[in-house]
Design a protein that fits this description.
Elements lengths: L2 H9 L6 E7 L5 E7 L3 H7 L1 E4 L16 H6 L3 E6 L5 E3 L6 E9 L10 H14 L3 E13 L26 H6 L1 H14 L3 E6 L5 E6 L5 H21 L3 E3 L13 E8 L16 H13 L4 H4 L5 H4 L12 E3 L6 E3 L9 E3 L8 H17 L24 H10 L3 H4 L2 H19 L4 H7 L4
């Protein structure tokens, strides 16, 4: 969408009074400004100035102490440039508004290397130089919950008024009970150009998954995921509920994942993972090997928060071992069955709480390393991966931070700037979490030890 198209789009919607101009930070949160509609044309032509450091604030929106970026640049501004993503309507607010996605450049006009969207763009350009295009689809899980409680509780059915109290895997009744909410989600996806596909009731009470159609543009796929998370939360509030993409909001229920499917096509649109059979091409196996090689050091991008590691506990039905397999959902990397024409890789590690730009950068970047270095994977796993002795992912946040800090291939995927920013951000968050003592710790230890 060009700036002229945007002017026309806004003129056709005189009810819009304000525009949100946003960039996406390391945690996947949108940050920016609300502007009156008459300022929209100016920001499209001239860009928007925000501190470069806004991309590295912690999950509470606080500046990073001793931020290397601040010391090196004097906390200088960056230029927020229009990404080209079509402007989107936001109609779950009290008055209709619009949202425009930007990404960060430096004062000299070059892309800011700490911007997560630029990280993904760099990977896409490297594929393009090889004549390859990743075709990507995402699957995002989330929970609806009661917003009146400090801790999450399942919502009440809009049909029966009864609180959900059991897991409803693939339940048609649960889908139908929340039909009005889901209809509004699909309407908003259509309005925002998000290619939403199938919806299912997942394994937890009030848990849903909505899949996206495959697109031959990883930046669009990541934009779609960021916008989707935002609209689901907004529409849930409109319906008197809350929506959470926490990886593990309930200790005794299923976690929420962010599964990514991808294949590679050549300049003629031919799927280069399809060899006519079930095993896939050597190129696909190179990609699998690269994903296995980089999985442990990139776990921080798949599991970026303290809560993320509750989902990745052994036995919690999420991948914990470095393994791949054919049609095996217990493996971190799954090669789905079906027609060879649709041969693809499914990456099952990331939680729904992860930043889509960083997730796709890690996945596509890891696969690219395997392709460039012609890596060969270990044998595919058979049976239950959870019960087998495998190299495992970092089982706690601190270990994952250090693995990302020291990773052999991390700077083959991400800039040193982004690597440092993410480590500093996560170290600050970790330190703050360690200062808080939980009620369960008091109950267990206060008068017992």
């Amino acid at each position: 969408m060009t700036t002229n198209n945007i002017r026309e789009w806004l003129q056709e919607r005189p009810e819009i009074e304000s525009v949100f101009a946003c960039v996406c930070d390391l945690n996947g949160a949108m940050r920016g400004k609300r502007l009156p509609i008459e300022k929209a044309k100016a920001i499209m032509d001239d860009g928007l100035r925000l501190p470069l450091s806004v991309l590295s604030v912690d999950i509470w929106g606080e500046d990073i102490e001793n931020n290397e970026l601040v010391f090196e640049t004097g906390d200088s501004d960056g230029i927020c440039d229009y990404t080209g993503r079509p402007i989107v309507m936001v109609n779950w607010t009290s008055r209709p508004s619009a949202l425009v996605m930007f990404w960060m450049s430096t004062e000299d006009g070059g892309p800011f290397p700490g911007d997560p969207r630029h990280a993904l763009s760099n990977i896409v350009q490297r594929y393009k130089a090889l004549g390859l295009t990743p075709v990507v689809a995402t699957e995002l899980e989330f929970y609806l919950c009661d917003p009146r409680e400090a801790q999450p509780r399942p919502p009440c059915s809009p049909v029966t008024g009864k609180r959900l109290d059991s897991d409803g895997a693939l339940s048609l009744d649960e889908l139908q009970h929340f039909d009005e909410f889901l209809n509004d989600v699909y309407d908003a996806c259509h309005e925002q150009g998000i290619p939403a596909d199938a919806a299912i009731s997942e394994n937890g009470a009030g848990q849903f998954e909505i899949n996206m159609v495959h697109v031959a543009d990883p930046l669009q796929a990541a934009d779609d995921a960021v916008l989707f998370k935002r609209l689901v939360r907004g529409i849930a509030r409109k319906h008197g509920m809350a929506a959470t993409f926490m990886a593990k909001p309930y200790g005794d229920r299923s976690g929420s994942g962010f599964h990514v499917h991808f294949s590679l096509v050549d300049e003629n649109g031919v799927n280069l993972f399809d060899n006519g059979g079930e095993e896939g091409t050597p190129l696909m196996l190179n990609a699998v090997a690269g994903l296995l090689e980089t999985m442990q050091e990139n776990t921080l991008t798949f599991a970026p928060h303290q809560n993320s590691y509750r989902r990745l506990l052994p036995g919690a039905h999420a991948p914990t071992g470095v393994a791949w397999g054919y049609e095996n959902r217990t493996a971190a990397i799954r090669i789905p069955g079906g027609s060879p024409k649709a041969r693809r890789i499914e990456h099952r590690v990331a939680g729904a709480d992860a930043n889509p730009y960083l997730v796709l950068s890690s996945i596509l970047g890891g696969a690219l390393i395997g392709i460039e270095q012609k890596m060969e994977p270990c044998a595919p796993i058979e049976g239950d991966a959870y019960s087998q002795k495998l190299d495992h992912l970092p089982l706690d946040w601190a270990t994952a931070i250090q693995a990302f800090r020291r990773g052999k291939h991390v700077q083959d995927v991400f800039s040193r700037r982004l690597q440092t920013m993410l480590v500093e951000c996560k170290m600050q968050e970790l330190k703050r979490f360690t200062r808080y003592v939980t009620d369960f710790e008091y109950d267990s230890y206060l008068e017992s030890v």
